[in-house]
Amino acid sequence: MIDLALALLRDELNEYIRSIPGNNDPVYVTLGNVSAIEGSNNNSLNDTILVSLVNIEEESTLKNLRTPPRMIGNRMVYDSAPAHLNLYILFACNFPDDYNNALIRLSQVIQRFQSKKVFNLQNTVSDTVLAIAADPNDPRHDLVRLLSLALDLYTMTFEQINHLWGSLGGKQIPFGMYKVRLVELAEPKVDREAPPIEQIRQDVHPLNEAC
Description:
Blueprint: H1 2-19, E1 28-31, E2 48-58, E3 70-72, E4 75-79, E5 83-94, H2 99-115, E6 118-120, H3 127-133, H4 141-145, E7 148-153, H5 158-168, E8 175-185, E9 190-194
Parallel strand pairs: 1-2
Antiparallel strand pairs: 2-5, 3-4, 4-9, 5-8, 6-7, 7-8
């Protein structure tokens, strides 16, 4: 599900940049490890907006929520509880020969996620996600139909920025960090099954007179 969440954001951003009036330059938004930029001879990473996952956080407030049972046939099925994740996504604008263009593209990233902060199956333009949702035989079909992402711009201190780019092993380029809430990740596993409760028996016992 993490890969589909990033693919959705990639496709949305690609479509938005292509739709900007007067935007004739080919700009590609791609998924990849931002650390590959430094010292790479792969020119395919140049003039791109690189989308990288840099951290995962479990949403503690939803950790203890129980999954309601489902009725399948004449059995009650209890599923394993899903993990609710927050993803920290880096949008790095890698335009080594045109710093001004990198700033323009960063502005467009912020504009996209400011004007549209919630992404789900009903409002997405992602062909990747829509194709899975349209195929009932795809094992990710049900999960994609529930996919909903909310984005918040994540502000970092100068010290955090220094540690971030130091750990990525590269030189800092124009970037924005977003906290993506909430990605629900679940193993399609049934914890247990039980017959349904069809009736409640109530036994009434007289009190002992000695009491």
